[in-house]
Amino acid sequence: MQQLKRPARRALLVVHVVVSVGWLGLTLGVLALGITGAAAGSAEAAAGAYRSMHVLGDWLLIPVSLLSLLSGVVLSLGTPWGLARHRWVYVKFWLTLVTTAATAFALRARIDAAMADVSAGRAVGATTDLVLAPSVSLGVYVFLTAISVIKPWGMTAWGRRLRGNGRLSGAGSGRVGSRA
Length: 180
Fold this sequence. Notes:
mainly alpha
C-alpha cells in the first residue's frame, strides 16, 4: 500500500486513538454493569443492568471494535510501521482481531442469553461470565495501549529482511511517525 500523506495519516491516527479509547471506555461501562448485575439484590436491578449491557453490545461494542480494527490496519499499512514489520504492531493486530471476535461472538452471546432470561421473566442469577469477559478485555486493551506507547520487541524477521534489502525506508531505526 502507498504511504499515507501526513494530513491523512494524522487524521487516521486521531480516529484510531479516539475509537480505541472509546472501546476501552465502553468495556469499563460493560464491566461496571456486569458487576452491578451480578451483585444486584433484586431481579429488577439485575435486569436493568443487563438491559443496559444489551444496548451497549448491540449499538456500540461491535461497530467500535470493528472501526478500531479497520483503522489500525489501514494506519499500519499506510505508514512505515507496516502490519508485520514490527512485533508490537503484529501482536497488536492479532490481539485486536481476537478481542473483536470475542466481543462479537462470546460476550454478546452471553449478554443475549441474560436478556432472554429477563425477557422471559426468568430470574437472572449472579453470573461471573458478564464480569470475567469484560475484565479480560480491559486487561488486553490496557496491554495494547502500553505496547502502542512503548513499542517494544523490535522488528520481525520479515521486517529485518526488508530493511536489509533497502526496501524499508527508515522504519527500522528510531520512532517513525513520532513527528506525526
